[in-house]
């Protein structure tokens, strides 16, 4: 199942605003504010200002704008979809679902309403209803790459890997420049044990988006499965460089270093994992093994004990 963070990433797919984007958004915010001052009944301007606020990460302000737009124009389906996106970002998932239902009631052809509701339903484990909504999104816009990308991700999360591959193939066919589709298909190839195919997909993702940290990390995993540990470590190095706040490439690099007999370096990587994920049981266990090999017996015992404590607390 997708995490809440992944779901919100689909609802609000943006890489963050650079200085230029921030400046443009502030200008747009001022323009829409002027528009609603001049025309207080201008529902679309409130909706658009809400979109700018959402893009700036100001979700409470965005919801207030969408509230006003819907008050002025209760059948404005796009405002319900947009308010649902902002509420999802605020983790108000039930309210978001209600808004998406309203959007569909007022406009049964709104593909984003079906797409986003399908993703939220999958988040709540309502898999059959989720697939039904995503199928409807595909029916409404069969040439829209993102509907296949989202449906494929939901299929993959429920181990319907062949159907997921078919959806990612379709997404890539519609948009050969989609680094996300290549990365997602690579993940599914790994689940199927097709590691060479996964490496090729991650390579395409990186070619299209050279700063794609997750694709470097994921390619490292596939390379490690193939026993190509040196190449895997190089990919983890790049993932760490691009996204130093992420624990995952440190963890994977630690595993690879341990397999290569580089126990001191493995311990250093597990240190970084635990710094970022203090309750990571596997990081403590793996660090304990590496420390034991290095003769640091008391430290190893302490790590094993800590792993047991965490495991007991999670029951």
From TrEMBL:
| InterPro entries per the UniProt record, alphabetical | TPR-like_helical_dom_sf, TPR_rpt, Ycf3
Q: Which UniProt keywords apply?
A: Repeat, TPR repeat
Renumbered ranges of TPR repeats = 43-76, 111-144, 145-178, 179-212, 213-246, 247-280
Q: One Pfam family of this protein, by short name?
A: TPR_16
- Entry keyword Repeat: yes
Give the superkingdom in one word: Bacteria
Tagged with keyword Membrane: no
Q: What is this protein called?
A: Tetratricopeptide repeat protein
